[in-house]
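Lecture 7 notes: from sequence to structure.
We start with the chain below.
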Amino acid sequence: MLTKRRFRYLILCLFPAMAAQAQTFTGYHTSQYAGIHAVPFNPALAAGTRYKWDVNIIGADVKAGNTYYSFMKSSLFSTQEKMVRNVDYIPDTNATRRQYGWGSGEIMLPSVLFSIDERQSFAFTWRVRGSANAGGVETSVANFFSLSYPNPRFFNRNIASKYAAGNGHVWNEFGFSYARVIKDEGDHRWKAGVTLKYLGGQAAAYTSVRDASFTFNSRELADINSARVYYAYNEELDEITDNDWQSAYNPFQNPGIGADIGIVYEWRPDNDGFGSMHEGGPDWNPDADTWKARFAASVVDIGGIKYRKAPASANIDMTANNVLVRSLNKQRGESLRRYATRMATMFTPMENEDTYYMNLPTSLNLMGDYNFNGRFFLSASATVALTGGEKDDNKTSALTQLTITPRYEARSLGLYLPISVNRYGQADAGFALRAGPLVIGSASLFSTLARQMINHADVFVALRIVPIRLGKWSWDKGSDGTYRKRRNQTGCPDL
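Predicted structure tokens for the same chain:
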């Protein structure tokens, strides 16, 4: 059984490490009205925007999920102390695949996008981010530890796992973006953008187990035939007392460098050589979305942060016979530091360095978008993780995901219906709303409402300052919204 206290503790521990998986603001992120919220997906989307400026006041995006446990929605919010297996939650005991879990999220603090002119823009983003991953565990091993551990029916049976790992990373990020139109000829427009990031590492931890093989002889004794274990966390975490995480926040500690780079192509078959044909209207740049189709690619979260290991970090060889089972468990009241130190003294130490480099969850983002009539659009976007695999423990990774989003767009209203599937085959349908300065949604809203049991969920919300037209004092200089390229053109178009 899982106790409610243990489950809530797990969620609370995971929450600070949430912030970078897959697509942020899923469904809404490909909108031409996304503005500053589109920059993390592809910095080139900042060029040629609809508005002179766009300001995010506060925003948040949180995701979490796993492949092994499914929970009754009612049990997650009940007051009962214990959660009963096969009643409140069901483990996927018959799966033949490996099992995984993940959590991600971010808080976007005051950020701004400013259009220098119709061709180029600058953006500043301030985000507190994090990412957590765990998995690679064979289902047989997951069953061993989750089904009434230690379960006598698993005694005297060899349990083996080639690889299992877990990691988490929380960091502060100041992003400085520049994007511009690099080519605009006839029906074709190209944009490019780059974001340089100053990173401040807050917390980073990892653990991995390689080539593990063990046998429980009884409830008291076990033979560990082989197991190499690697674990580390940054030294600042030892300074946190009474779970006072807020006092530990320092945006300039553990500095690192990161980058995003992107490109966008727009097909504009109605271009007649005179620029925009839009007269009037409230937008500073009404030519911004006169494309019929656009395609984009970006690589984001390049880079990482170097940390000093806490003294309790270690690499150990756990091979041993007749090990007391209770000594392997974290004891009541025992701190993580004391537990990690005790494990290192119980088994054979291996070579260990004083520092480690935690990679960001680097990913490739792809997008295609089709404009039906200026109000209805259809987009497809994909995030492909580039830091997965078993080679490097010092990393977090994005969640590979494909999303298709029909949407309706107006100046002050946007409706989005994202339909997505991730690398684990979990399919979702969601909804997002842009109403003036408010953006709110969930890529799994309809799926979560329709299912009795869930194993993943997400939600996002943002509050922004929407540009307001101020007559002759507007950014159009009283031109009634006419695009300057059209205003200033006096010659004939090129033939």
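Points to note: The radius of gyration is 26 Å. Residues 4-21, 272-281, 469-495 have pLDDT under 50 and may be disordered.
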